[in-house]
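Below is a filled-in request sheet from our internal design queue. Each sheet records the structural input a requester submitted and the sequence that came back. We keep these sheets so that new team members can see what a complete request looks like end to end.

REQUESTER: design group, bay 2
PRIORITY: normal
MODE: inverse folding
CHAIN LENGTH: 503
BACKBONE (tokenized):
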């Protein structure tokens, strides 16, 4: 066998140049700033086929459109990806809160046509901004109500419900020419650990996994999802040794072989501690491609040129050492380029999609569940909004506002608000509210003892308190009026405030 000596940058041979272009093609990196950095544009010229946008890259839709235009000046078929689930996880509306309710609200309504309409309007907006690849929807079945990272990102706890809404979401989004990425395979719903921090483990038998976790992914595949995202979770019934992202049994034998999926497989963020803290970032990337992944999501945290070059060089070195078959890397790069070509061919679809800017609020209003205790009086005078803030998970982030305070202030001028957390929150609210009617806004009350205690204190002293639950409504409804929104998107807050005033 003849070997050709080349540098990691690929200089010295056409074969080496092909190898390094393939290594760049499988990376989906992020970057800093709201304009296209020179280093990103340069690497696009060298073979980079995708970039990812995060909240830090977004100021307005006009700015994102200008940014994607700068990037596409280097490569017309560049994949521009974003983590835009709508609902609690939003990047396009990161500074205002989403214009669309998230999955759990849509699952609560359980009208697949509504879900399809919401994702179609989201896709139209993304396409208008030049975004062509959305790391959504979440197809996780919310089998564990204490899950710290999925929660309202899931359509619900029923595999059938999640399956039909996953399919509808994929169909709506892709009708606009934006590729959907169904996640987190083989299912992140039954975990009690956030994979941003450690490796979650799902200890159930294979029959349970096939009956509960896999139906939504089968539905997504049948609906034509262009991509599927792997999960950094250990599922011993499928592979006792490697988490999903690094498992050939899960990605190649199960997803490709058994489920017959032929589209792009992209990893979840590789900086997450479940991978980087256990295997190391570079080695984890090599293992993921070897296992069957086609694209590497990186850049939520590490968003510099040095990271891209290290990962490129690690892939090249792995091919040269024989650890990673060159054919596997070439196949992965080809799938990325195939998806990019699909987005170009589908680009005109968004222009044919009629705008439906009110659909998000329509859906949020339909999702509300209102429970009244006796003759609950509507709130008609300026109120005090007490927002109980749990620590945000990393997927949601801490940039995005939530709650009902701004909308209630608009509806009831003179209303004021405060944020509270931890022991003594209830007493602090009573002192701050004085004689005004209290609207207590909670998020996943069932998961936080301090939040439950604060509500106990409030309701004992002020039984006319209104409670708005903007997370999973697992705790029993209580308060003079209890409003469940099934998510904390901006439109969910608007709909809740309307219900507070209506009584």
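RETURNED SEQUENCE:
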């Amino acid at each position: 066998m003849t070997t050709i000596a080349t540098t990691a940058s690929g200089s010295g041979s056409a074969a080496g140049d092909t190898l390094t272009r393939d290594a760049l093609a499988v990376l989906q990196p992020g970057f800093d700033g709201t304009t296209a950095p020179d280093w990103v544009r340069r690497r696009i010229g060298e073979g980079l086929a995708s970039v990812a946008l995060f909240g830090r890259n977004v100021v307005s839709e006009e700015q994102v459109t200008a940014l994607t235009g700068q990037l596409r000046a280097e490569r017309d078929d560049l994949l521009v990806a974003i983590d835009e689930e709508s609902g609690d996880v939003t990047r396009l509306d990161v500074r205002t809160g989403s214009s669309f309710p998230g999955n759990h609200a849509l699952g609560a309504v359980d009208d697949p046509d509504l879900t399809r309409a919401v994702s179609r309007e989201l896709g139209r907006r993304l396409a208008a901004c030049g975004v062509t690849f959305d790391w959504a929807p979440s197809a996780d079945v919310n089998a564990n109500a204490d899950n710290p990272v999925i929660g309202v990102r899931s359509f619900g706890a029923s595999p059938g419900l999640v399956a039909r809404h996953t399919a509808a979401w994929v169909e709506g989004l892709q009708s606009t020419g934006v590729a959907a990425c169904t996640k987190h395979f083989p299912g992140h719903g039954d975990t009690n650990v956030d994979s941003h921090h450690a490796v979650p483990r799902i200890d159930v038998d294979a029959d349970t996994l096939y009956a509960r976790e896999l139906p939504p992914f089968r539905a997504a595949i049948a609906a034509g999802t262009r991509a599927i995202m792997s999960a950094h979770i250990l599922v011993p019934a499928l592979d006792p040794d490697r988490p999903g992202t690094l498992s050939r049994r899960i990605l190649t034998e199960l997803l490709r072989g058994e489920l017959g999926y032929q589209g792009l497989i992209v990893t979840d963020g590789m900086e997450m501690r479940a991978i980087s803290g256990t295997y190391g970032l570079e080695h984890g990337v090599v293992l993921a491609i070897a296992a069957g992944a086609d694209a590497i999501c990186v850049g939520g945290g590490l968003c510099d040129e040095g990271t891209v070059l290290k990962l490129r060089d690690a892939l090249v070195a792995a091919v040269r050492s024989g650890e990673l078959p060159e054919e596997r890397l070439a196949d992965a790069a080809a799938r990325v380029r195939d998806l990019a070509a699909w987005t170009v061919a589908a680009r005109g679809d968004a222009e044919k999609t009629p705008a439906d800017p009110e659909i998000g609020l329509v859906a949020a209003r339909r999702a509300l569940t209102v429970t009244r205790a006796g003759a609950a009086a509507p709130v008609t005078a300026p109120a005090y909004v007490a927002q109980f803030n749990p620590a945000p998970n990393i997927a949601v982030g801490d940039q995005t506002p939530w709650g009902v305070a701004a909308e209630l202030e608009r509806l009831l001028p003179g209303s004021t608000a405060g944020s509270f957390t931890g022991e003594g929150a209830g007493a602090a609210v009573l002192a701050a509210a004085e004689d005004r009617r209290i609207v207590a806004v909670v998020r996943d009350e069932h998961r936080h003892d301090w939040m439950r205690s604060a509500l106990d204190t409030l309701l004992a002293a002020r039984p006319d308190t209104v409670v708005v639950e903007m997370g999973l409504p697992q705790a029993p409804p209580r308060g003079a009026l209890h409003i469940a929104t099934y998510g904390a998107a901006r439109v969910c807050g608007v709909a809740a405030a309307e219900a507070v005033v209506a009584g």
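SHEET NOTES:
- DSSP finds 18 helices and 14 strands in the chain.
- The first strand starts at residue 27 and ends at 29.
FILED BY: M.R.
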